Amino acid sequence: MGASESLVDARLVACTPEGFREIATWIADADACIRWAGPKPAFPLIAEQLAETLEATEHNSFELRGGDGRLLGFGQVRTRPASQAEPGAAHLARIIVAPAARGRGVGACLVRLLMRHARESLAARACTLRVYRDNAAAVALYQKLGFVEIDDPDATSDVPMMRATLAPAGSAPAGSADRAARRVPA
Fold this sequence. Notes:
Radius of gyration: 16 Å
Distance between the termini: 25 Å
Helix content: 25-40%
Number of helices: 7
């Protein structure tokens, strides 16, 4: 069964020690480690320390599991300090897709589910994320999902901040007018 077939029943679940062990194998080198998780975790990643290093909890760190139970991706949803963010915004971080599942819609599914979690569990009205400008596939995906580049104190010339407005909880899926206004159903 391919990644796209397993997305039908894909779901977010709290990240497990087994999940962290598998995720650690997805990071090939020190550069990839910094680009995914920032300077805090050292490469090679030590799976048993990854949860602590990433400040992971069952409320902010999620595995994307396919309908067949395979681990397809990982991401975090965090609130940013009030001094750095607009009220009601959640921040998506450390998004990664299993190497074998890339290019099959898994990233879009993962980000949509993270956005839904932010809206439903944190009452977020918007989501932000940072992405390396030269990661063309990720930038294109985020733009497709309604993210636009914004001015932000955490942005750099290489790693801009992007933001998407979330549709209100319980609203109908966004139509073209909502998408044009950057309102994204999550």
